[in-house]
User: Which sequence fits this backbone?
């Protein structure tokens, strides 16, 4: 445990929790005493009855009292105890007789629906009556919307409060805790992934929560899954670079409509919309930009400050199409061919894989540039519906690898095929790629997908989803901040991080 404490110190922790109940049952009280005395960081000593390995309930409680009394005697900075323990008469005497140690009283709140502010308020009042200096609530949440009353409690609680929502949908309880007045934030050590906890390294290097305050505007990516998103490593440094008081967080959302009807405050100022919500999110907007309305998908939603209305935009369309056009232009220049037509896509056969939100943006964009759009999607009916919307064509997905009416076509993958962790997959065999002049892949994790590698090997010009990501992110950042985006800074940042 001392080695872990040193590791935490190296990673920038201000405070560590020493979970004594997780130590081996053979650990003697003298070993625990040595640990407390040799601590190299301010510490929270905790002993949880529910997770103790002791077989006897009575023996567990005795061990708990012994450890916590030792921590109090040695003036460890914080001692955390269960509400049940703090309510015990013997512990009450120790609590009131302490010298410098601050007492954290904690309680676990079971899931089973959104906790009410009344229930949480009553629980906090009872816990505070034990003489606690700090209250800690560990809450099981089923959906990200279950966190709304927790943020309310953080804002209005009269006693220092720690709120930890358990599970992957609870991550923002830590990332947004400081904004709403949380006493401290937990992070996992050594880059270890723990559901509901950010890594300590991400807290120190990406989010830098020391810059967060009550006036910080909240932005985030609404997606499911959301772990692959690179948005936080782009937008957070860009906010700091431009001295804009904002934070950008991953938002694991199951029901997009419920999310937007729950988080209605002006502090939740803007959102990137990811898979699979780009189409459903249109109905959540009060207003939709004409381009996004025609596409039928939004990838950006802004809460307009003057009236709180949600306004939807689509920055995917121009980002992806302009990236493909620039690649075509560079290829022609490299071949000694100069073109003065409005768009190099005009007259080209544009083969699109995927008919979701990103696919719709590509389809409408390519059609607007004069391309002949042919759509393949595993759900053929969805492909036909999109083809009908743009006066294009749809063919069964099974026909994709044999489709070759001409050479020099454009291929755009707007599906999730090839995205991590399935990075060994490709939507089309390598041999079939010889018919394409330019191949674009909207997938950007990994940066160099199997599709792009194989396309380059057969001589096609390739366009990474990273380029689309940069361009759409620049558009989003302008909408988020109402100003110009630091293009050189963002481009350099993304290319270094991806």
Assistant:
């Amino acid at each position: 445990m001392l080695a872990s404490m040193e590791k935490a110190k190296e990673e920038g922790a201000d405070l560590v929790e020493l979970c004594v109940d997780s130590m081996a049952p053979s650990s003697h009280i003298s070993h625990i005493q040595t640990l407390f005395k040799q601590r190299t960081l301010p510490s929270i000593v905790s002993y949880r009855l529910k997770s103790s390995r002791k077989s006897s309930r009575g023996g567990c409680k005795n061990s708990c009292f012994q450890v916590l009394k030792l921590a109090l005697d040695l003036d460890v900075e914080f001692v955390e105890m269960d509400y049940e323990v703090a309510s015990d008469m013997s512990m009450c005497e120790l609590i009131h007789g302490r010298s410098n140690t601050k007492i954290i009283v904690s309680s676990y709140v079971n899931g089973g629906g959104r906790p009410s502010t009344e229930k949480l308020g009553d629980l906090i009042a009872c816990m505070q009556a034990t003489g606690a200096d700090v209250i800690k609530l560990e809450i099981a949440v089923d959906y990200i919307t279950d966190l709304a009353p927790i943020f309310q409690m953080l804002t209005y609680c009269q006693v220092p409060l720690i709120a930890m929502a358990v599970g992957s949908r609870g991550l923002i309880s830590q990332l947004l805790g400081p904004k709403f007045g949380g006493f401290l934030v937990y992070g996992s050590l050594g880059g270890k992934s723990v559901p509901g906890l950010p890594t300590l390294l991400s807290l120190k290097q990406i989010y830098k929560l020391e810059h967060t305050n009550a006036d910080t505007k909240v932005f985030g990516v609404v997606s499911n899954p959301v772990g692959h998103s690179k948005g936080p490593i782009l937008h957070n440094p860009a906010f700091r670079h431009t001295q804009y008081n904002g934070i950008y967080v991953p938002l694991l959302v199951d029901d997009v409509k419920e999310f937007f009807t729950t988080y209605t405050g002006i502090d939740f100022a803007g959102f990137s919309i990811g898979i699979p919500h780009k189409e459903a999110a249109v109905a959540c907007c009060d207003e939709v930009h004409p381009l996004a309305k025609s596409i039928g998908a939004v990838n950006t939603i802004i809460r307009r400050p003057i009236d709180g209305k949600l306004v939807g935009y689509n920055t995917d369309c121009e980002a992806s199409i302009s990236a493909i056009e620039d690649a075509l232009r560079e290829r022609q220049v490299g071949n000694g061919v100069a073109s003065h037509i409005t768009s190099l896509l005009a007259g080209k056969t544009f083969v699109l894989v995927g008919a979701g939100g990103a696919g719709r943006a590509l389809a409408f964009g390519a059609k607007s540039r004069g391309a002949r759009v042919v759509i393949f999607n595993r759900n053929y009916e969805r492909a036909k519906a999109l083809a009908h919307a743009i006066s294009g064509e749809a063919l069964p997905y099974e026909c994709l690898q044999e489709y070759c009416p001409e050479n020099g076509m454009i291929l755009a993958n707007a599906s999730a095929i090839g995205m991590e962790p399935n990075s060994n997959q490709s939507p089309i065999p390598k041999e079939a790629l010889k018919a394409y002049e330019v191949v674009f892949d909207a997938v950007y994790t990994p940066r160099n997908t199997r599709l792009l590698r194989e396309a380059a090997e057969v001589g096609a010009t390739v366009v990474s989803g990273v380029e689309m990501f940069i361009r759409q992110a620049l558009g989003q950042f302008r909408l988020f901040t109402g100003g110009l985006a630091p293009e050189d800074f963002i481009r350099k940042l993304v290319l270094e991080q991806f």
The longest strand covers residues 102-109.
